[in-house]
Specification:
By secondary structure, the protein is mostly helical. It has two domains: about 1-50; about 55-80, no CATH class. The chain has four helices and no strands. The chain has helices at about 1-15, 20-50, 55-65, 75-80. Helix 1 (about 1-15) packs across helix 2 (about 20-50). The longest helix is centred in the middle third of the chain and has 29 residues, at about 20-50. Residues about 75-80 have low confidence and may be disordered.
Length: about 80
């Protein structure tokens, strides 16, 4: 139901109803939005089950996602001095 309530106004606002078979395009647009929202919901529930407490979630997320993006210690110390 939430995918339909998002898809219905957005489909017409973007202008997908201008050319071609509108019913077929709407169905496929709604279907892929439905699959996307279901997948994101599943991933969200998976991450909640993976990290049962806030401390675990913070340490797991920081080590998995932010660690490769962090500069080495020597560079971060140089930036702190500026």
């Amino acid at each position: 139901m939430s995918s339909l309530s998002f898809t219905l106004p957005f489909f017409y606002i973007v202008g997908f109803d201008n050319v071609g078979p509108v019913t077929q395009k709407f169905f496929w647009y709604w279907f892929f939005n439905f699959l996307l929202q279901g997948t994101l919901l599943f991933l969200g529930e998976f991450y909640v089950a993976l990290t049962p407490s806030e401390a675990t979630a913070h340490s797991t997320f920081a080590s998995c996602c932010y660690r490769p993006l962090c500069p080495p210690v020597s560079q971060s110390c140089l930036f702190a001095r500026l």
